[in-house]
Amino acid sequence: MKIMTFALVALLAAPLAAQADTKPGSTTTTTDKSKTTDKTNDTNSNVPSNKSMTDKSADKTKSTAKLGQTDMQVMAQMHHVNQSEIMMGKLAQTKGSTQAVKAYGQMLVRDHQSADKDMLAFAKKNGATIPMYKPTDEADQKDEKDQKDMMAHVKTLKGGDFDKEFLSMMVTGHEKVLAKIDSSMGSIENADLKSMLDNVKPTIQKHADQARDLQKNNAQAMK
Q1: What is the spatial distance between Cα 111 and Cα 119, in angstroms, rounded to a whole number?
Q2: How far is it, in rounded angstroms, from Cα 110 to Cα 157?
Q3: Across 9-64, where does the E strand assignment appear?
Q4: CA-to-CA dists, residue 221 to 102, 121, 127, 148, 163, angstroms
Q5: Taking the CA of residue 192 as centre, how many other CA atoms within 13 Å lie in the half-sphere pointing to its CB?
Q6: DSSP assignment, residue 185?
Q7: 169, 220 in Cβ contact below 8 A?
Q8: Which residue, among 146, 198, 190, has the nearest Cα to 168 in the 3D structure?
Q9: CA of 165: how far to CAs of 62, 80, 145, 207, in Å?
């Protein structure tokens, strides 16, 4: 009888022990939840937030602003100027009557080749192809015609006559280029293009100033 009573008590105690093992707040359950939470937090910490990705995308868009119609027109004009000045510089090295004029021609070739290289690289970086230059108004059309006529005329000259007309053309031409850059600055959309033109302006001004100095020297030499 005692044995049966002891067995009955054991059977009744077993369910109570099972409930105690699964009771919320137990050591086993708390430890498992902590591990799960820590693992989840570690995973989330490695995933960039949507805001961060959006900010990076916005910064990339700002740094690669598209080239507008005015930008392309200015680039075409500067490329055209560079090519013309390179040609005239080579002509001066051949036909100049003084070493000073020949050296000036060499400077033109060097500086405008460098400027043109930078312009072509800029266009490539922005996925653009520089178009052929076309005057956009009557004033530009007249300037283009006058320049072609003057270049054709200078090519026929020799000696001191060449130096005189060539230098006069260099002063006038470079001053016009500076004026066109200044007038287009307000319409240029790409900030990098603006910066490039700002950087090239001192070189163009130097070309105009040195041509003017050579004119004075030649005038004094003829007295």
Answers
A1: 12
A2: 24
A3: none
A4: 17, 43, 51, 29, 12
A5: 15
A6: G
A7: no
A8: 146
A9: 47, 21, 17, 15
Helix (H) or strand (E) holding 109, with range, is: helix 99-125
pLDDT in tens, 176-207: 999 999 999 999 999 999 999 999 999 999 99
Quote the CA–CA distance of 93 and 208 in Å, as a whole number: 17
Among 192, 183, 194, smallest CA distance to 136 is for 183
What's the CA gap between 80 and 183, in Å, rounded? 17
Sign, Cα dihedral of 95, 172, 210, 220:
positive
What is the Cα–Cα distance from 48 to 3, expressed in whole angstroms?
67
Residue 201: count other Cβ atoms within 10 Å of its Cβ: 14
Give the domains, in start order, of the chain with CATH numbers: 66-221 (1.20.1260.10)
pTM over 0.90: no
First to last CA, the chain: 148
